Amino acid sequence: MSRFFHSRLNGIDPYVPGEQPQTKPYLKLNTNESPFPPSPHAVRAAAAEAARLHLYPDPTCHDLLAAFADALDVGINEVFVSNGSDEVLAFCFQGLCPNGVAFADLTYGFYPVFAELYGVPADRIALREDYSIDIRDYGTDDRTVVIANPNAPTGLALSVGDIKSLLQSNPNRLVIIDEAYVAFGTESAISLLHHYDNLLVIGTLSKSHGFAGARLGYAAAHPDIIADLNRIKFSFNPYNVNRMTLAAGVAALQDHAYFVTCRDRIIAGRIKLLEQLRLRGFFCTDSKANFVFATHPDYSAPAIYTQLRALGVLVRWFDVPRARDYLRITIGTDAEIDSLLVALDRVIKLA
Ligand SMILES: *Cc1c(COP(=O)(O)O)cnc(C)c1O
């Protein structure tokens, strides 16, 4: 730490992304990327835009907002786009948590980092013993609530009915639902948007549309909340979404058939992987995401993680309370799932 670093940030414990090895060719099942590239239309749109990289992108993101409004069935003044959903989450912690924030004790690891970065007092609400969320535990005060639905890394989802109850009993509190994994089989809370002005839904094309490298997140909410997000964006980085991503995003949202094909393959892969892991004695949560969360009674999670790594397969192990016994494994292609299982059988000595 240099002597210039602000003392308020001395205690910050930055987010640690999953390994992104740039040299050895690993089978990467550790960061919930899509195993499929973006739509070919999106690839072509991004390539065409490359020749205009000397010009700033549209700071209003008009065409992309129109495409999201269309895809999400909301008004253009009810959507916002960002440089990955991490950026809009950061804006929320910075500007939309005036009375503090509450989130689960086991959830997306960036929430506590953002709370620390922006000095927002954070209350961690314990998941039930089975890792599910009981919305009654969030009480009725004025702290902003942030819930990942489905949750990460458990993959467990809340019903829209539960989210509705939370909104209904807390009209004066902002409820943020992070739907990074909603495409893989959970009902979106966006259907509640026109009934509750305290709902903010956040999403990303990273996992659902193969856009992790493009960085494209979105938010949907009452126009007043969207205007607040724009206040922050235009005070920070008016050009937050680059030209290639703006163009690729429009094309990807318009290619609905390609999205459906990829999503359905991932859901089928999840069903197969869950079945195969359970056959091998793993306990797995009922994941609705593009990953599974699995533990084995006879083999320690860090030992499996280390041995899989030695065999060229990367999965994610979190050395945090309540997740230490589990591995989070991203759903790959069918062939990747088969390779994972071959490696796993060497590790758990069943082969
Ligand atoms: C991956 C993820 C994000 C961030 O995605 P971006 O790539 O920044 O769009 C946000 N929330 C959760 C729960 C995630 O798993």
What are the key terms here?
351 residues, alpha/beta, 10 helices, 13% strand, globular, binds pyridoxal-5'-phosphate
SSE layout:
Blueprint: E1 27-28, H1 40-50, H2 62-72, E2 79-82, H3 85-95, E3 101-104, H4 110-117, E4 122-125, E5 144-148, H5 160-169, E6 175-178, E7 199-204, E8 217-221, H6 223-233, H7 243-254, H8 256-279, E9 283-284, E10 291-295, H9 301-310, E11 313-314, E12 327-330, H10 334-347
Helix pairs in contact: 1-7, 2-7, 3-4, 3-6
Bound molecules: pyridoxal-5'-phosphate.
Question: Could you provide a short overview of the structure?
Answer:
This protein is an alpha/beta fold.
Can you offer a commentary on this structure?
By secondary structure, this protein is α/β, with parallel strands linked by helices. Helix content is 35%, strand content 13%. The chain is built from ten helices and twelve strands. The chain has helices spanning 40-50, 62-72, 85-95, 110-117, 160-169, 223-233, 243-254, 256-279, 301-310, 334-347, and strands spanning 27-28, 79-82, 101-104, 122-125, 144-148, 175-178, 199-204, 217-221, 283-284, 291-295, 313-314, 327-330. The strands form three sheets. A seven-stranded mixed β-sheet has the order 2-8-7-6-5-3-4, with helices on both faces. It has a three-stranded antiparallel β-sheet with strand order 9-10-12. A two-stranded parallel sheet has the order 1-11. Helix 4 links the parallel strand 3 and strand 4 (122-125). Helix 2 packs parallel to helix 7 (243-254), helix 3 (85-95) crosses helix 4 (110-117) and helix 3 packs across helix 6. The longest helix has 24 residues, at 256-279. The radius of gyration is 20 Å and the shape is globular. The N and C termini lie far apart (49 Å). The mean pLDDT is 96. The site of pyridoxal-5'-phosphate has 13 residues, from helix 3.
